[in-house]
């Protein structure tokens, strides 16, 4: 699991049902994405903080959502690269 | 050990995990503390009933990719507008403030949703969240911290904490649970079935824990 911090709590985890090798890990102040079933990870959405959970739209793999611990929702339409707050 | 898996024997089961997780529990404490502080500062303008979520544990979309569900410390909420506004869903007539630990929609049947709670086990709805029933036969305890569904055969795995701790499996939609494993080390935050074949007849279970991300073949 190269690239994923080892001593941190994983609050959220989501997998792309269309391609289960694509997965996301939400730690408190960082979101990570893997495209090889967790062998390697890269941080995405560096502006995202206080994360509690992450999910992928089962009907549109590019659509990814995160929830912060206090209930704010952020959405990505490009597989986690760019994010915007849902207001 | 950095960047490599190693085997962590746990009373007969092997969960793969990464090294250096010994401080995970401390981090979990910091997380709760920080989240509590944040909850006092949040802006609730996006929530109609003005009630605090207090602390979010889970976010999930239904199998149709339309409705979004938020599992919180004070109950289950549903949004039909990409998280713009939320409506509270009562799991029972007696109690609407269950501490929701996991929300697991059935990927094949958009009407079916499973929810895990901190204090009352697992609930199931087969009408898109309108009505719910407890499905706890065989479950060793009420505190369920993770709930995974196998996208191939709808097999369920539930991670029970404290009383009756362990991983429980149901092969009939939650009608009956059987304890099958001790589960990963560290407090489990999320449990997910990942449709990657293990080569041994099953797929993988991934667990997000206070000690990092762990995975294990589910064919135990």
Structural features:
heterodimer, A: 87 residues, mainly beta, Thrombin, subunit H, four-stranded antiparallel beta sheet, globular, B: 220 residues, Methylamine Dehydrogenase, Chain H, five-stranded antiparallel beta sheet, 1 helix, 7% helix, disordered N terminus
Summarize the topology:
The complex is a heterodimer of chains A (87) and B (220).
Chain A: E1 12-15, E2 23-27, E3 30-34, E4 42-44, E5 51-56, E6 64-68, E7 73-76, E8 84-85
Antiparallel strand pairs in A: 1-2, 2-3, 3-4, 5-6, 6-7, 7-8
Chain B: E1 5-10, E2 13-18, H1 24-39, E3 56-61, E4 68-72, E5 75-79, E6 87-89, E7 100-105, E8 113-117, E9 122-125, E10 133-134, E11 144-149, E12 156-160, E13 166-170, E14 178-181, E15 188-197, E16 203-209, E17 212-217
Antiparallel strand pairs in B: 1-2, 2-17, 3-4, 4-5, 5-6, 7-8, 8-9, 9-10, 11-12, 12-13, 13-14, 15-16, 16-17
Can you walk me through this structure?
- The complex is a heterodimer of chains A (87) and B (220).
- Chain A is mostly beta strands.
- Chain A contains no helices and 8 strands.
- In chain A, the strands form 2 sheets. In chain A, strands 1-2-3-4 form a 4-stranded antiparallel β-sheet, with no helix packed on it.
- Chain B has 220 residues and is mainly beta.
- Chain B has a single domain, classed as 7 Propeller (Methylamine Dehydrogenase, Chain H), CATH 2.130.10.10.
- Chain B has one helix at 24-39, and strands at residues 5-10, 13-18, 56-61, 68-72, 75-79, 87-89, 100-105, 113-117, 122-125, 133-134, 144-149, 156-160, 166-170, 178-181, 188-197, 203-209, 212-217.
- Chain B has a 5-stranded antiparallel β-sheet with strand order 1-2-17-16-15, with no helix packed on it. Chain B has a 4-stranded antiparallel β-sheet with strand order 3-4-5-6, with no helix packed on it.
- The radius of gyration of chain B is 17 Å and the shape is globular.
- Chain B starts with a strand and ends with a strand.
- The chains are: A mainly beta (87), B mainly beta (220).
């Amino acid at each position: 699991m190269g690239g994923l911090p080892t001593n941190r709590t994983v609050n959220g985890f989501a997998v792309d049902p269309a391609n289960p090798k694509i997965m996301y890990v939400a730690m408190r102040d960082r979101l990570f994405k893997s495209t090889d079933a967790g062998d390697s990870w890269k941080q995405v959405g560096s502006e995202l903080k206080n994360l509690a959970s992450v999910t992928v739209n089962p009907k549109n793999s590019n659509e990814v959502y995160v929830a912060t611990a206090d209930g704010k929702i952020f959405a990505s339409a490009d597989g986690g690269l760019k994010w915007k707050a849902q207001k | 050990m950095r960047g490599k898996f190693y085997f962590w024997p746990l009373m007969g089961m092997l969960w793969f995990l990464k090294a250096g997780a010994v401080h995970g529990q401390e981090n979990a404490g910091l997380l709760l503390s920080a989240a509590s502080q944040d909850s006092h500062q949040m802006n609730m303008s996006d929530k109609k009933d003005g009630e605090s979520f207090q602390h979010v544990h889970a976010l999930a979309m239904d199998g149709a990719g339309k409705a979004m569900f938020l599992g919180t410390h004070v109950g289950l909420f549903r949004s039909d507008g990409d998280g713009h506004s939320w409506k509270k869903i009562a799991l029972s007539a007696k109690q609407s403030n269950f501490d929701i630990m996991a929300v697991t929609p059935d990927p094949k049947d958009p009407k079916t949703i499973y929810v895990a709670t901190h204090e009352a086990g697992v609930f199931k709805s087969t009408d898109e969240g309108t009505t719910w029933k407890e499905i706890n036969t065989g479950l060793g305890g009420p505190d369920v911290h993770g709930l995974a569904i196998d996208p191939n055969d709808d097999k369920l795995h539930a991670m029970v904490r404290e009383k009756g701790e362990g991983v429980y499996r149901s092969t009939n939609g939650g009608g009956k649970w059987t304890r099958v494993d001790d589960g990963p080390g560290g407090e489990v935050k999320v449990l997910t079935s990942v449709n990657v074949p293990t080569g041994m007849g099953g797929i993988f279970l991934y667990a997000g824990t206070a000690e990092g991300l762990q995975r294990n073949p589910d064919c135990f």
